[in-house]
Hints:
Blueprint: H1 19-61, E1 65-69, E2 75-78, H2 80-86, H3 105-120, E3 129-137, E4 143-152, E5 158-164, H4 166-176
Antiparallel strand pairs: 1-2, 1-5, 3-4, 4-5
Amino acid sequence: REVAEGNLAAKPVFASRDELGGLTLAFARMTEQLADAREQVGRGVAQLEGARTRLQTILDSLSAGVIVFDRDRRLDTVNPGATRILRQPLSAYRGQPLEAVPGLAGLSTAVWQRFELHQASPEAGERDHWQDAFDLPLGPQDTLNLLVLEAVLPGDARLMAVDDITEVASAQRSVAW
Length: 177
């Protein structure tokens, strides 16, 4: 009854050479193995949570934007850098496609077209990811120049890293003039 209620602490085993003694000894060993397995699972969960916390801290402190899409192309994970660069509250759209975010439908279409092109015929050096520049119109006279890197993750998830290169593009135009 104690084991059924979750108490896997060691139980006293009465030594006897009959079937009942063998049965109680086997039951005690099984209970000990269950306790060990529960402890290992607990340690594994703690390690996983620690790794998840470290990864989230890293993502939150990056200046680049990081967006993870699930296999159905819905927003799964978004860091503050992506919210800052794309100037949209992306976390509020978690579980929705990127085109559902106001002003990002064109970027979404362009990025997914580029991804499909990469899958069909990757260029030299583009095995598991691609990188390209995109323009995001913000208004009649204002455009954001973005550098986007996209990679496939396990489970058909996608990672999109985005960085604002507007100042770099502007400087390159000035140098060209």
